[in-house]
TrEMBL record:
It comes from the Bacteria. SUPFAM superfamilies: Periplasmic binding protein-like II (SSF53850). Belongs to the bacterial solute-binding protein 5 family. Residues 68-410 form the Solute-binding protein family domain. This is ABC transporter substrate-binding protein. It comes from Teichococcus deserti.
């Protein structure tokens, strides 16, 4: 029986199940995209850790619904005429969840830890002479070179933590979760693989105004939010129908038609930017340390196959062709796209594999069993690589295990890996400034660690470009180079649906779940 048949059978069963317990008015029960395996949003780049981080920490700036950075924890900021000195003033009344006042020293330590792991932050560090407190509410950043993207950088999941926590090495995991945001995280109630719990933070002082994506007033209307891990999509759908849960972040695409027929359930697409599906590639070990082999694989990739496997009968929820930058946003370009849109010829691609010098090395493909879309990508990838004559080992595991394993720089035969399937949020990969998979900074880069001085030089040129036209030109050059060096392989743009009970109202439109503003009618 096919995967789609099994899911359809499960859907039929859940539709016939009688209603059970209804939701508590002050508790929101939510099914996240996967397991919160690690709650440190600096140490890991997973979206679920970022979603968790946004619950319990706030940021100095937040992106609004037009994706423009707005002051969030800040009352305001000033920039010197030479653009080298930035001074920031904190809002009055800011406190951490333990009651301690948020200080400039906390902000500086938080920025410094975050910056070592994020592209926008790494650029900030490279251009910073000093970060120093001025008084109890103000601090300044002095630059050695102008960096106009500072507000956007500080809006990029740069969460404000107490100084003692933020001084943790960014390559080590924090052990304490004192927050600055609208919810607290009682660690004693967190059970990895089962649930995470959040409580309304009485010490949090929301900004005035309506919420607008990650900016504006972050008012928590629920006393308690429970994230309940349900890897089986049909089970989650049944729980939503019965009122046992209020909200499913990402219902399975195969179940959307059934869910749209349910009473008291709404299926919505708040995601207007989407995510980019991609193949993450290990560049430091054979066989994918060989650019010729990577280009041979790229020549055989058919993005339509990936979208059909992942999204199926919901063509309005994906977009191809998809290059290295998010389609529909300013840096998207047709430059070099023939690498993905040209005729696919498997026989020719097999010859390219043979000509590349491939010696039959094992290729370990990691697949997240609890993420249906990424798992579908993995199945297509394994089938394709086998057709190309590669020696494949398929390694299926839950997302938390994959996230841990992908940090390993050991060779595949010693517990490492060759390739994994994932998605990256469209806003994050919209341009070179924050595009982690497009970095060429080797050991300091994204998992796979490609080294490309040319990509890094073009990125620097983009950051200093005087106008949008030059930025677009450079983005085109970067895409052409990416199809030559293949730091990763894009497989399509997907727009994620979400589903919730109809008594859940005022959901803030966003590409990921936001828990302020939302309430029960």
């Amino acid at each position: 029986m096919s995967r789609r048949s099994v899911l359809a059978a499960g859907a039929a069963l859940t539709l016939a199940t009688p209603a059970l317990a209804q939701g508590n008015a002050r508790v929101l029960r939510f099914v996240p995209e996967g397991n919160l395996a690690n709650p440190d949003p600096v140490w890991t780049t997973t979206t679920i850790a970022r979603n968790h981080g946004a619950m319990i920490w706030d940021t100095l700036f937040g992106l609004d619904a037009q994706f423009e950075p707005q002051p969030q924890m800040l009352a305001g900021h000033e920039v010197s005429d030479d653009r080298l000195t930035w001074r920031f003033t904190l809002r009055e009344g800011l406190a951490f969840s333990d009651g301690e006042t948020v200080r400039p020293a906390d902000c500086i330590a938080s920025i410094q830890r975050w910056a070592r792991r994020r592209p926008l932050g790494q650029t900030l560090l490279a251009r910073t002479e000093a970060m120093t407190p001025i008084d109890d509410t103000r601090f300044e950043i002095r630059l050695n070179k102008p960096y106009g993207l500072i507000p956007r950088a500080l809006a990029d999941s740069c969460f404000m933590m107490p100084e003692r926590i933020a001084k943790t090495d960014p390559f080590q995991q924090i052990r304490e979760y004192i927050g600055s945001g609208p919810f607290t995280f009682p660690v004693n109630e967190w059970v990895s693989g089962s649930r995470a719990v959040y409580r309304r933070n009485p010490a949090y002082r929301p900004r005035e105004g309506a919420p607008s994506f990650m900016a504006g007033g972050k008012v928590a209307h629920f006393d308690r939010v429970e994230w309940l891990v349900m890897p089986d999509s049909a089970t989650a759908m049944g729980a939503l129908q019965n009122g046992e849960v209020d909200w499913i972040q990402r219902p399975d695409y195969d179940l959307l038609a059934s869910m749209r027929k349910m009473r008291n359930v709404r299926v919505a697409v708040h995601d207007k930017v989407g995510v980019i599906g991609m193949l993450g590639i290990n560049h430091i070990h054979p066989p994918f340390d060989n650019p010729k082999l990577l280009r041979a694989v790229l020549s055989a990739v058919n993005q339509a196959d990936y979208m059909a496997a992942a999204v199926g009968a919901e063509p309005e929820l994906f977009h191809i062709p998809c290059g290295v930058f998010t389609p529909g946003l300013p840096m998207a370009t047709d430059a070099g796209m023939q690498a993905l849109t040209g005729p696919r010829d498997l026989a020719q691609s097999r010859r390219l594999v043979q000509d590349s010098g491939y010696k039959g090395e094992r290729v370990v493909v990691m697949s997240p069993s609890d993420y249906p879309v990424q798992a579908a990508f993995a199945q297509v990838t394994v089938d394709l690589l086998k057709q190309l004559g590669l020696n494949i080992e398929f390694a299926s595991m839950d997302w938390g295990t994959l996230v841990q394993r992908r940090t390993s720089k050991e060779p595949p035969e010693k517990g490492g890996w060759s390739l994994f399937t994932t998605t990256y949020e469209g806003l994050t990969v919209a341009d070179p400034s924050s595009h982690v998979p497009l970095r060429g900074n080797g050991p300091q880069g994204w998992f796979g660690w490609p080294t490309s001085p040319r990509l890094e030089a073009l990125r620097d040129e983009w950051l200093d470009a005087p106008n949008l036209a030059d930025q677009k030109r450079i983005a085109g050059e970067m895409q052409v180079l990416a199809f030559e060096e293949v730091p990763f392989i894009p497989v399509g743009q997907i727009f994620n649906p979400t589903a919730y009970r109809t008594d859940i109202v005022d959901v803030v439109p966003a590409s990921f779940p936001i828990f302020w503003g939302v309430k029960r009618a």
